[in-house]
Amino acid sequence: MNDSNEGAVDIRASELDALPREECGVFGVSGVERAAELAFLGLYALQHRGQESAGICAVDDDGVARVKKGTGLVADAFTADDLNQLEGSTAVGHVRYSTSGGSRIQNAQPIVVRYSRGDLSIAHNGNLTNGNELRSRLVEEGALFQTTSDSEVIVHLISRSRHETVEAQIDDAFTHLEGAFSLVLTVGDTLYAAVDARGYRPLVLGRKGDGVVVASETCALDIIDAEFIRDVKPGEVLKISDGRIEPLRSLPPAPKPAPCIFELVYFARPDSRIWGTSVDRARRAFGRRLAQEHPVEADCVFAVPDSANSSALGYAEESGIPYELGLLRNHYVGRTFIKPSQADRDFGARIKYNPVREVVEGRRVLVVDDSLVRGTTSTSLVKFLRQAGAKEVHFRIASPPVTHPCFYGIDMPSKEELIGGRHSVPEIAEQLGVDSLGYLSLEGMLECVEEFGPFCDACFSGDYAAPLVDVERGLSSMANPPGC
Ligand code: AMP
Question: How far is the CA of 223 from the centre of ligand 1 (A)?
Answer without folding.
Answer: 26
